[in-house]
Design brief:
The chain starts with a helix and ends in a 9-residue tail after the last helix. The chain is built from 9 helices and no strands. The chain is globular and about 45 Å long. It has one domain. Helix 3 runs antiparallel to helix 9 and helix 7 packs parallel to helix 9. It is an all-alpha fold and about 150 residues long. Helices cover about 75% and strands about 0% of the residues.
Length: about 150
């Protein structure tokens, strides 16, 4: 049951493996198990995101009212990153997701791939590799090997 909790938390937007790994370690999972469960949970929604997000974004951006306005502002904000994306192609997604800062996870990477119209087959590998690198950094930080944030 605890393993499903870790997988579920890791699959959620915002939380992702950045929350799943520390949760798993606090529940007594080994570092290897914590890493694998969080990676599994984080990657689990990827096919759904890559194939449904373009449709969802199109519908939401066409709405009137506050939700539609917020989506259009978000899309405009993301479009500012077009230069970086043009330079690196789908591998910009890898760089974005691999850095385990708030808001740079798989969900946001999948949104960006939809905004920039990256075909799902071209986006999947960079996103998965980004999740793996982010997972390694989070597990190392969780074990005290280094600090991601200094307070």
């Amino acid at each position: 049951m605890e393993a499903l909790l870790v997988v579920g938390i890791s699959a959620l937007p915002i939380a992702e493996l950045r929350a799943g790994i520390p949760l798993a370690l606090s529940l007594g999972f080994s570092p290897a198990s914590a890493f694998l469960l969080a990676i599994l949970g984080n990657i689990l929604p990827l096919p759904l995101l890559l194939f449904l997000l373009p449709r969802v974004i199109a519908v939401l951006s066409g709405l009137s009212g506050p939700l539609g306005a917020w989506v259009r502002r978000y899309l405009a904000w993301q479009a500012r990153h077009q230069r970086l994306f043009s330079r690196w192609g789908p591998w910009a997604l890898f760089l974005f997701v691999a850095v385990p800062f708030p808001g740079t996870g798989l969900w946001t990477g999948a949104i960006i791939s939809s905004i920039f119209r990256v075909p799902p087959k071209r986006a999947a590998l960079p996103l998965i590799l980004g999740v793996l690198i982010a997972g390694i950094l989070v597990i190392l930080a969780s074990l005290g090997v280094f600090r991601l944030f200094s307070l």
